[in-house]
Specification:
CATH topology of one domain: 434 Repressor (Amino-terminal Domain)
Order of helices and strands: HHHHH
Radius of gyration: 18 Å
Number of strands: 0
Number of helices: 5
Shape: globular
Helix content: 25-40%
Largest sheet: none
CATH architecture of one domain: Orthogonal Bundle
CATH superfamily of one domain: lambda repressor-like DNA-binding domains
Amino acid sequence: MEGRGERRCEGEAERARPLPGQARRGRLPGRRGPQDAGRCVMTPAEIHAVFARRLRRERERQGWSVREMASKGEGVLASTISRAENGHEIWLSAALAMADVLGLTLAEMFGEPDCANCDGKPPARFSCPECGRTGVS
């Protein structure tokens, strides 16, 4: 049985049972309401983890340390970058500033990568063995 905070999707074979002390109201753990019907909804912890992985991967792809990245953006502190990369909650404005420094949109920061190996953006003059894309210099 899944614990608190784990994602459940509509249409799963096994329906959620209410947790102890939780009334049965037709809502599944991790779901927000009828507007989300038919979609998987990520928990806050999952959202932070996706952002953290993408942030670290993109920063390292640029060859920047946390301090170097902080020096490239206005209002982006090294401590905030470090907190975000460790999956902690940050302000939306900080997430937007970090995405801007990396040349990405927030949608790209939270979206699933095209390729698990290179995120669809291999380094300049290299080809990804998984998807075959070549990096542009």
